Amino acid sequence: MITAKNLNFNYGLFRPKEDGFAIKDVSLEIKPGFISCLLGNNGAGKTTLLSLLYGFINPKSGIVCYDGRPIDRKNIASYHRDVAYCGEKWCADGLTVEKNAEMLSTLYPAFSKELFNKYMEIAQTDRTYDKTFGELSTGQKVKVEIAFLLARKPKFILMDEPLANVDPVFKTDILEILQNSVAENGTGVFLSTHLLDEITDIVDYIYVLKNGSLIKQGSRLELLDDGHGSLKDIMSL
Amino acid sequence: MDDKKIMKDFIARIGELNKNKNLWIIFQISGIAQLIISGRHSLLVKGGGIPIPSLIVAGGLIFMSTVLYIQKYTVMSMGSFEKERSQLLFLIAGRRMADMQEKLSDIVKTHGFDLGIYYGYLLEKILIVQGVSCSIVFIAAMIGSMDMKSALVSVGMIALISLNVWYWKMLISGAAARHKKGLLYEIFYRIVIYIEIMGSFVLLFFFINALSVQLSSIIQVTVLKNINNLNEPVKTIYHEGSAGIADLLFSPIITLLCADIYGLFIKQDRVKNFLFAALCVFTIVIAVMRGMTISNERVSFSENSVSVKHDDDEKEYGLKDIKLYRISLEKDYYHIHLEFNDGRIEEIYTVSSVETDAWKEKYSGETEYFNEFAQKLEALGIKAGEEPS
Hints:
The structure holds two protein chains of two kinds. By secondary structure, chain A is an alpha/beta fold. Chain A has helices at about 45-55, 75-80, 95-105, 115-120, 140-150, 170-185, 195-200, 220-230, 230-235; strands at about 1-10, 25-30, 35-40, 60-65, 70, 85, 155-160, 190-195, 205-210, 215-220.
């Protein structure tokens, strides 16, 4: 389980005023076998929070733990092996898809080439093996990235707006693939999005972020039964 | 599978992908050659000790070699399949080719990558390369090509430079991989990059200069052995004017190459290969030109004779064959005017010269030597000419 306790973060060298924090006193849990979602408008701090959870940046205060142990320089490599991140540069633009997969799969003993080929086929990107990653369209890049990170069988997946540049057909496919991965492998998925409608059917737990603070959290049913009626109402709080 | 095995396999994979990145070999060989040749030349001419400028140039070459070797394992470039087509696309789009080099630290941020272990394996590789280099230096010392003190200094310098480059590269990569790019990091990183860029300009220039001088010194030493008895005090003065012109012609090529290394200009392999081939050819040409000046254009002053050589015209004169002489001190060299009885006139400038050990033991410098030379001529009744008006 990934836990975050009382995270605070601001950009810049000096402590800002009260309303200058990018992330303010955020605590959450990402459990295996569940799909959690981070909702928030643009500028709410979703990417910052994901960066803190993954270890790209260090919080000014607070702590991120993995299976009860704080993440630090000594264990961050093994943490990154168990936790995949979707949404940042992950491969060499100048290498072909195939060479990138060959190169980076070396880092993951559990990587399955069969799975990678399978997901590439589902995503209809199986003709891009010989293309350099830089030549792919934005949507194709997302699909290849998701195929790779699923093929490495991570325990957790953190995703920063993964559906933003994907065609509608593949959106359905990716959500289905994520659900299968959760069900079969017990993968914990934490994804950020502001596309409310696409995720309501699959998400188990929702965190709502506004101006760097978590204003609401709960299971999907709890939030919807809380009298707000729809997630859009929750977002407008 | 443990982390070490994973990183070991990964570094091997990166090395395989970058197997054509071997420019570092040229710098490494040049640096070691510079040390050995300088050591040998100094041993023959001065009795030992590598001159500081030669050490600086060699150090710069070892620095560049280590930087490029580390880049082989920390920078990704395009594979051969994509190169032609994509290079053309990028050129048409007007993008710099330098944009196609990607740092491994940017790629592995989202992967289970242990930077410490990776750089540990990289250090092992560097130690193997430098170990071989140091062994070559020690072998050179053992066979008498350089003195042992120079060998130890060279080995120490190689170790110091390569370890420092590795360490600071690791720090920079680590900071980049952990997103710890604060203001101080940015300042430090920029300073290091600019030092590397400017350093490569300066060092390559000096390298060409020094390498050509040192290569020519092989010819020089051979010539000295052939024409001089090293047990006698002999001062040989030669003319290096032609080499200076070659250096000036050379500078644009060096500048372009240095800029190319850092991707400041658009890279095309053919152009780069041509420039490098030209660099090698010019180095050899300059070395030969420098070497030929001493072998073909020189005046040697012995205790009781003066040898003059211009290509195939070579003649030895006794002191009494001199009809008139004039010795004057210019800025920091002597100008000697000699008129011989057979009508030959020689204008000699002591800008570039070599002296035998015996000469150096006997005379404290040119002033003492030319004073004695003038006294000998006066004793023979040879007139000192007046300064031309």
